Amino acid sequence: MERIARVSPYRLPLRPLALAAALVVGLVSAAPAAAGLVPHRAIYSVKLGPMRANAGFVDARGAAKIVLEKTCDGWITTQEMSMDMGTAAGATVKQDIRSAGWESLDGKSYRFAVRNVTGRQVEGFKGEARLGAAGKPGKATFKVPPGKTMALPEGTLFPTGHTAWLIERALAGDRQAPRIVFDGTDGQGARKVIAFIGRRVESGRHGKKGLGALVRRPGWNIRMAFYPLDSRAPAPEYEIEVLQLDNGVVPRVVLDYPQLTVVMTMEKIEAIPAPRC
Questions:
Q1: Are 43 and 21 in contact (CB under 8 A)?
Q2: Rg (CA), the chain
Q3: What are the residue ranges spanned by the domains of the chain?
Q4: Are 206 and 251 in contact (CB under 8 A)?
Q5: Which three-class secondary structure state does DSSP give residue 257?
Q6: Which of 17, 25, 86, 222 could form a disulfide with 59 if both were Cys (CB 3.0 to 4.6 A apart)?
Q7: Cβ atoms of 65 and 269 closer than 8 Å
Q8: What pLDDT sits at residue 6?
């Protein structure tokens, strides 16, 4: 059985880092939009962005590999991320994250597994979730930790479906798009995610060149604020800002924590052939 360890004071919150993998990829109607996502493999550089007071870190460097694959019955997203984080006390803490998720084409079923190693501490979650028919409430069941279950509210989306739905909203000209999303990456429940969608940016104007045809697409700068479902606080737990292209590719991700930011920049991308079904 996987050991679930106490969280290190130097550990970055896992949910936004793992969710970034899903972002490179409402309701059941999100499935047709997901068909327009392009299967691909991308390599990112990872570094520390602007810091605020008492951040605890002075530097962070690393790399990430994110893969989005399509199968005959769903989407598979896998991620490997490794960072060396320098603390204000002069220490270096290594963080390695590995995650995998499978989401059915109809958006109703989802399986997830994530393992986070920070120094000598290990944290992991594994389970599956299923939504009711026609957007009805669903349920998530964890295998790690064993026996843990939680209800999923009506209208919940899983990560790939949420990405597809956001692209739909952006294409429709929406500027704000709230939804409930469950990814399972931190062992907690679904979150309310409020997305603020910027104006359409044409392919030659978003500054990402030399990465090939997959990045020569229009897109939008989208900023997402994450709240617990029962939260009444005006400030979110954290925010994620992405350059979201219309084919599902994300050349840039900014993970915005209360005390610091982490910037992921795409360095390489290649297409993955779709299956013959």
A1: no
A2: 18
A3: 14-271
A4: yes
A5: coil
A6: 86
A7: no
A8: 27
For tokens 């009444």, name the residue. Answer: 232
- Give Cβ neighbours of residue 93 (< 8 Å, ≥ 6 apart): 8, 10, 11, 84, 85, 87, 118, 119
Helix (H) or strand (E) holding 92: strand 92-104
9: tokens are 């004071």
Distance CA 218, CA 214 (A): 10
Residues 6 or more apart whose CB falls under 8 angstroms from that of 232 comprise: none
Count of all residues that appear for the chain in the document: 277
Task: Give the amino acid at 54.
Answer: N
pLDDT score for 204: 76
The helix (H) or strand (E) run that includes residue 34 is helix 30-34
Tell me: the pLDDT tens digits for 154-183? Answer: 999 999 899 999 999 999 999 999 999 999
- Residue that has been written with the tokens 């299967």 in this structure: 39
24: nearest Cα among 69, 61, 63: 69
Share of the chain above pLDDT 70, in %: 85
Residue 276, CB-side half-sphere exposure with 13 Å CA sphere: 0
H or E element in which residue 31 lies: helix 30-34
* Per-residue pLDDT reduced to its tens digit, 44-81: 999 988 877 676 778 889 999 999 999 999 999 998 98
Closest CA relative to residue 77, chosen from 46, 113, 109, 32: 113
Contact between residue 40 and residue 272 where contact means Cβ atoms under 8 Å apart: yes
Does the model's pTM come out above 0.70? yes
pLDDT, tens only, 11-46: 455 455 545 544 544 222 334 344 478 999 999 999
